[in-house]
Amino acid sequence: MITKQLDTKEPQQQRGITGLETAIILIAFVVVASVFSFTVLSTGVFASERSKETVYAVLEEAKSSLNPSGSIIAFKGRAGTSTDEDSIYKIQFVLSNAIAGEPVDMTPPYTVDATNTDPDISSGSEYKTVISYQDKNQYISDVPWSIKMLGQSSNDFLVEQGEKAEITVWILQRLNGVADPLSNNGVSTYNSTDSNGSSGILTTGGTLLNANDQFTLEVKPESGSTIAIQRTTPARLDTIMDLK
């Protein structure tokens, strides 16, 4: 009797992917790559735009800047009745337009008329440039200042290319107008802030600017960079001093 032996081997399993699955995978890769490329390009364009805006802002800042031109001059006055009360009462310097830039509005908040007490509030004018004063004893955020245009100018207070403006900062008041500031009580501290919110050194809590004192003036125009002027007064105060 002939018997047939059954084949007990399991059938082999075959694995693979269809063409449709391959297409789906490739499309997914293409979509992801496109999204990534778009993100990278968008980031690059955004960064370039921000860089361009920064460059233009810096150029605008530079074009609207002023530069000190020449010496810093200090003037002595007598804030009392004796020579022991002599101190600096005003400081003058000249500003010019930097690198032939945009005009800078230097409309002054104060004028000088050599009568009564100077400086006087310039009525009806809005000033956009603020000057602050600081020494080791005090900080005054808004001090009175006046202006005189030098040489050729366009009869306004816009400092344009080729123009120079002489700025006078009044840290003390000059009394009696044309009177000699070095006479008895020729100058005086400010009793309080005025209607502009400005003042020089105040009678209460203020300390006069004397010999061997360091001070800083900051000119802050409406646009453009701040100008910092720092000087130290000489060991002996003269009537007029060039603070080199």
Structural class of the helices, strands and pairings? Answer: alpha+beta
Tally of helical segments: 1
Number of strands: 16
Q: Taking Cα atoms only, what radius of gyration do you get, to the nearest Å?
A: 36 Å
Helix-strand sequence: HEEEEEEEEEEEEEEEE
Domains counted in the coordinates: how many?
2
Largest sheet: 6 strands, antiparallel
- Unreliable stretches (pLDDT < 50, length at least 5) are 55-59
In helices, the fraction of residues equals 10-25%
Please state the overall shape, judged from the principal axes of the Cα atoms: elongated
N/C terminus separation: 131 Å
Q: Percent of residues in beta strands?
A: 25-35%
Instruction: Name the average pLDDT.
Output: 83
Characterization of this structure:
- With 244 residues, the protein is an alpha+beta fold.
- The chain has two domains: 21-63; 67-242, no CATH class.
- The chain contains one helix and 16 strands.
- The protein has one helix at residues 19-63, and strands at 66-68, 73-78, 86-97, 104-105, 110-111, 120-121, 130-135, 139-140, 145-150, 158-159, 164-170, 173-174, 187-188, 214-220, 227-232, 240-242.
- The chain is elongated and about 110 Å long.
- The N and C termini lie far apart (131 Å).
- Mean pLDDT is 83; it is low at 55-59.
